[in-house]
Amino acid sequence: MSVPxxxxxxxxxxxxxxxPSETIQELQAGREWRFEVAFGSxxxxxxxxxxxxxxxxxxxVGNKFSFTGIKSAIYTWTGCTLEITGTPSVEYTxxxxxMNMYANAHxxxxxxxxxxxxxxxAQGPRAMIIGPHDAGKTSxxxxxxxxxxxxxxxxxxxxxxxxxxxxxxxxxLTAVSFSTIMDxxxxxxxxxxxxxxxxxxxxxxxxxxxxxxxxxxxKLYKSLVSRLALAVSSKLSEDDYSRTSGCIIDTxxxxxxxxxxxxxxHIVAEFSVDTLLVLGSERLYSDMCRRFExxxxxxxxxxxxxxxxxxxxxxxxxxxQSRETAIxxxxxxxxxxxxxxxxxxxxxxxxxxWRVGQASNVGSELLPAxxxxxxxxxxxxxxxxxxxxxxxxxxxxNLDDSEEALAESTxxxxxYVASVDDQKxxxxxxxxxxxxxxPKPLIVSSYPEPTFSLVG
Length: 456
Ligand SMILES: Nc1ncnc2c1ncn2[C@@H]1O[C@H](COP(=O)(O)OP(=O)(O)OP(=O)(O)O)[C@@H](O)[C@H]1O
Fold this sequence. Notes:
- One of its GO terms (biological process) is tRNA splicing, via endonucleolytic cleavage and ligation.
- Residues 26-116 form the Clp1 N-terminal domain.
- The structure is a single chain.
- The chain is an alpha+beta fold.
- The chain has three domains: 13-94, Clp1, DNA binding domain (Jelly Rolls, Sandwich); 99-305, P-loop containing nucleotide triphosphate hydrolases (Rossmann fold, 3-Layer(aba) Sandwich), CATH 3.40.50.300; 316-364 and 373-444, Pre-mRNA cleavage complex subunit Clp1, C-terminal domain (Elongation Factor Tu (Ef-tu), domain 3), CATH 2.40.30.
- It has helices at 6-16, 99-118, 137-150, 218-236, 240-245, 261-271, 282-292, 316-332, 403-406, and strands at 22-27, 31-50, 53-54, 57-58, 64-76, 80-85, 90-94, 126-130, 156-159, 172-177, 205-208, 247-250, 275-279, 301-305, 333-334, 337-338, 342-347, 353-356, 378-381, 391-395, 411-421, 426-431, 442-444.
- The longest helix is centred in the first third of the chain and has 20 residues, at 99-118.
- Residues 1-15 have low confidence and may be disordered.
């Protein structure tokens, strides 16, 4: 007996729940499947045959990986079959990739590592990647790191591009010793604040810069670079693994313009860079050759590498969404690893807040004619409603420390200002861990920008 009206209802129900489409992608050896997934939609990829990798990290056969808000590529050296569930917004296969060139760069670095292993005092390569925005610098860094880790090396990876955070929020400069593989879904992987993860967590050393462009506060940027270089040098001399593996440095696209050349020189000097990998710019390559040739005391090898045709220019709206996602994941985790942040109230009198000094908040128009603007590292800021929805870095320093001391302090973590009551002089903040806010200075800046959608 059929129940009147039930069957059509069920049919409607099954029509409403759309099953994602499943496609099979056969990739021949040496080809790359490039794809883009918008924020808010997800695709799942499983390798069912052969070998495949995402920017140097292998995708094991049979495991499903899900991707959202990403522009990426899967490359195969030997051929593979991919099972794709869901529909990417863009997808195509490319026969032309610079992967051979990138692999050669890796083997050249490996040769230097092998040489360093022969002598107890020799240093492994200190490579730095430079190039314009969206030239594929971070992707190349991941490839070189992934290959080095797969060969048992432990390179120190340094991110000097505040535009994207590595194992931390955007706006930070970080260094981390990589001894385990990257997480293919998460980019670089996870840090201990991200909660349990199938891939071992990495412990990054984090400094907060808070400006997108290294020229935004050159003095602060240079100071943080020097500080990070000191930490990296000490890590590289800690054990034989690190000494021979050397370091790989990712940089900001802003310094690839001629106004940034002095900054390149500063980084090269501080990190004792000996290999400069120039990506996607003939002019930059030739300028660097001119600048760094004939330095017998500190030779720097300048190498030209081709930009991948798959590199995509990421529009500002995409980058903004990436930053918002990074902030949300810092506090709330993501579907596979949810976190429970804590809300607490803090009174203004217990806080010492500094703002990163930027040209825009110094007021050069008030200076007498002819006088040069002296940009401060930080400016003290009275807590107020202006901080609402901002991210603040809690730094490892004392409340009465000077600006210079702050510029040498690592980040303990970040808090989010959920609401501010100017009259009662307190604010509600969201913190990733429970307990009282430690009595440490807080640093606020414009990058990443205030996020309105974090707590509803
Ligand atoms: N071969 C490729 N196929 C598809 N997408 C790619 C490929 N290589 C890089 N991309 C994508 O292109 C974008 C830009 O690449 P990447 O972040 O490596 O550039 P970048 O030079 O580090 O950029 P920026 O200096 O602006 O941070 C990223 O979304 C990256 O995932």
